[in-house]
Amino acid sequence: MTPRLTVFAGLVAALSLAACSPATEPAADAAAAAGGEVNVYSARHYDVDQKLYEQFTGATGIKVNIIEGSAPQLIARMQSEGAASPADVFVAADAGALWRAQEAGLLAPVQSEALTTAIPENLREPEGRWFGFQRRARVVAYDASQVRPEEIASYEDIASPRFRGQLCVRSSDNIYNLSLVGALIEAWGPEKTAEWARGIVANLARQPEGGDRDQIRAVAAGVCQIALTNSYYYIRMAAGDDAGDRAVTEKVKLAFPSLDGQGAHVNISGAGVTANAPHREAAIRLLEFLASPEAQTLVSQENGEYPASPGVAAPEPTAAYADFTAHPMAVATYGPRQAEAQALMTAAGWR
Question: Which residues on adjacent β-strands are paired with residue 253?
Fold first, then answer.
């Protein structure tokens, strides 16, 4: 066993973050022996991801070993492991999280015609350190009995006096909100964005709490009339097995506000190859697989995210919510604005 894999085995046992994929079955072990392996540190925790890894192993013979945790946990772990880190691929559910790994020097540039052809320039890091494979829009869930769609046609509308005491939202340190506010700073500058953040605080129906689903449910319960949410949370509630959540989406609808008339703010889920990847070629093959139409379609169908590639159509149930214009801003701009965004939100009183 190489020193890197010795470290990998020990850390799996010690830190209890390991989540071995079903590729530990005997048949998959045989495939791995023939095709090698790749170690994935993933901050995504969706059932469909496991299916993707199984399909990748079936197609290539490369076994996928998965370590799960939050993005900050995994970044800290890779930093502590240093050059001996067994991580080959880092997966995260926000461009800001990928940027944090990039800034820590943990991701390496990748040159791949398959990736640059499949993934639009604004949905990947310019030097190829990470690529977005799915998109999600940060938009507005609203009470259709109380709010007209035209009242939330822009992001400015969310902070307008019309919604004093009628807004539910997550905390200011949530990565999705940091990326949104970072995008607003990029588009508007700090002064206008600070004014917007003060309007958000003035409009709060309650102090920020819970996740995006909690905000949507709060709208249905009459706590607030509008809420900020990622689109895929709503889509999963609308198409899921929980009858209560489906009932919520009968009352609560989804609106796609526009940023400066150019479309709704979008973020990505994506991945990059690590700087010290012991299985670099296998890691690149995995990224290329995640960029394939088949992989993007499966994630869209089962997780409510939108494919990153413009040539890949969103399947149902996601297709029912895919008729919107996405803002063309490069998602790589969000991360560098996060510290400024956090300071601005804190100054506005957004907890």
Answer: 142
Q: Are 123 and 331 in contact (CB under 8 A)?
A: yes
- What is the distance between the alpha carbons of residues 230 and 223, in angstroms, rounded to a whole number? 19
Same domain flag for 170 and 104: no
Do 256 and 197 share a structural domain?
yes
Helix/strand/coil percentages in the chain, nearest 5: 50, 15, 30
Q: Are residues 184 and 292 in the same domain?
A: no
Query: What are the φ and ψ backbone dihedral angles of 101, each rounded to 5 degrees?
Result: -65, -40
Q: What is the pTM of this model?
A: 0.87
Residue 81: domain span:
3-134+268-321
Q: How many domains, the chain?
A: 2
In this structure, the answer to whether residues 107 and 147 fall within a common structural domain is no
Q: One digit per residue, pLDDT tens: the chain, 351 residues?
A: 443 433 333 333 333 333 333 333 333 344 444 469 999 999 998 999 999 999 999 999 999 999 999 999 999 999 999 999 999 999 999 999 999 999 999 999 999 999 999 999 999 999 999 999 999 999 999 999 999 999 999 999 999 999 999 999 999 999 999 999 999 999 999 999 999 999 999 999 999 999 999 999 999 999 999 999 999 999 999 999 999 999 999 999 999 999 999 999 999 999 999 999 999 999 999 999 999 999 999 999 999 999 999 999 999 999 999 999 999 999 999 999 999 999 999 999 999
| Closest of 332, 267, 292 to residue 107, by C-alpha | 332
Instruction: Judge if 216 and 338 occupy the same domain.
Output: yes
Residue 316 parent element (H or E): none
